[in-house]
Specification:
Distance between the termini: 100 Å
CATH topology of the largest domain: Beta-Lactamase
Number of helices: 15
CATH class of the largest domain: Alpha Beta
Structural class: alpha+beta
Number of strands: 15
CATH architecture of the largest domain: 2-Layer Sandwich
Number of domains: 4
Helix content: 55-70%
Radius of gyration: 49 Å
Order of helices and strands: HHHHEEHHEHEEHHEEHEEEHHHEHEEHEE
Largest sheet: 5 strands, antiparallel
CATH superfamily of the largest domain: GAF domain
Length: about 625
Amino acid sequence: MKNDQKLRPLHQRIINLRRVAPLVILALAGLHQLTLWTLQPWVSPVYRRWLAVALYGLSGSLAVWFVLDWLAKKIAQHEQTEADLRAAHENLAENHRQLLAVHDIGCEIASASEMQQVLDLAARAPSHLTEAVGSTIITFDDDRDRLKLDMAWGLSDAYLGGLRQRMEAGVSATRCQQCTSLKAHLSIDCPLFVGMEELARHEGVKSLVCLPLVRNQQRDGIISAYYPSPNGPPEEQIQLLNIVTTEISSALDRARLQTSQMATLYAVENLTQTQHNLDDLLAQVLEATLSGWDACGGGILLYDQADAAWHHWTQQGLGDTPNHPHFELAVRLAEEARQRRQPILIPDMSQYPAWSLAGDGGPDSAAVAPLIASNQLLGVLVMMAQKPNLFQPRQASFFSAIAHQAALAINNAQLYARVQQMAMLEERYRLSREIHDGLAQTLSFLGWHLDHLTTLLTKGQLDKLADELATGQHMVREAYMNVREAIDGLRLPGEHKGITVALQEQIVDFEERTGIETSLEINAEPESLPAETELQLLRIVQEALVNVRKHACAQHVWVRLNDETYNDRLILTIADDGCGFDPALPRGRKHLGMSTMRERAQSQGGDFSVVTGPKQGTRIRVTLPT
């Protein structure tokens, strides 16, 4: 009943009081009259009226006093209740504001994709959610056992400069990693406050709260929030900050992983263009991928379509032999990905049917993707980790991108190997052609010539014998020159002296062997010229000089290499003052040399032209883009 009365509104109580007020007044009036009757025998008639007035005034005053006192108490209770409700409402509004702020920061953190963006949100969070005057993000350098300042918010340059000096002086990271209180004020021996007292007072800082950033269940760093009060923020605000810090730790982990994965993608893409040895390529792609995804083991297995079997692979952390349980599990995953021709990401390997193959110490999560280039399956990429949920189905598109780049790299390496093989065969064909057209024919003629000399000697025709001996000596020198040129052709691919030095050596050697005056003019050293382009230019010069020696009857040869930077062109010119030739004549050895030079120029995306005529010399011009 009492509780029901307390719950009634004040105006309802007054209305109820008004209903009983007449009865109370009548009762008081009756009591007043009874009192007068009782006192009349003892009071003279002169004072009876004053007695009545006194009694009426006293009783009325008491009644009004009790009523007003009751009303005052009820109004005071009502006002207190309103004040409590107002305070509760303000408290709820503040909590609601803080929760909205936590929600907004959480949404921003969840949508942040870059490390710097996450760090910026983490640094602003204490000032946004609490009364912090500033904050810092500090990570631990375990290798040097030092603290590292990564980000700051709201603090002056002077304070941050002093803090950096303090850290460089040697603040142990182990102490912050093992700290249990995570709260400090200026009077406590905190490594972040020692030697910083004056700067902290000038900054208006009297305490700090450290919020741990956890990675792989270990403290990876802290967010230090600085406060103007000695006791720091209320406990409920610290709880909000801890909630946000948990989200920040997860976001930093995601950002690190994404950054590492993007670096992996770029690294694999770069290997596509720079690495051509298949074994080295597989090892480097696997190393970059495992490092980027923080995986403990994996492998790249190549599939032979003809034999329908896995024939070539590289692996890390899958055991020492193909019979190891981890390797057998990798092959099982690879076969499944090959059949599906799409990535498979398994967050929880305990749910995978073949998980028991790995035995004790098996992976907690795994990912496998087919390596497909030009719609052809080249192999698979397998990764395993000792962390559950490292690989998620939502990462399939990104994993496919890495697998695609890896497939392109492997395909390019295989194509490069074929091209190298074809180039080797082409060089063998060129060499055989050179030997056939030069040395073989010369030796054949020398054999016939020796028989002819024998005949002349038998017949005693000594005058003719002398002339024929001179011809034989010339043919021997020609054979020697052919052999030297063939040897030079074999040497060129192995030399890496730069095109300028190689041309100088080639010109000097040609001039010494032939006696033909040769000039070399290079107006600028070409920059960043591919090795293949340098080789083809040297081959063209070599072929042109061979033609000059054999056919031009020239006295002078000019070789010029011009780098026209404004036109992005490289121009090679070989000119002689020899007899020239008629391009319309039937194809002979010189025509074959011209065709070879044209093919070499066109293989590098260049143009090839020849200007010549009988007794006009020959001018060869090669133009290459740079």
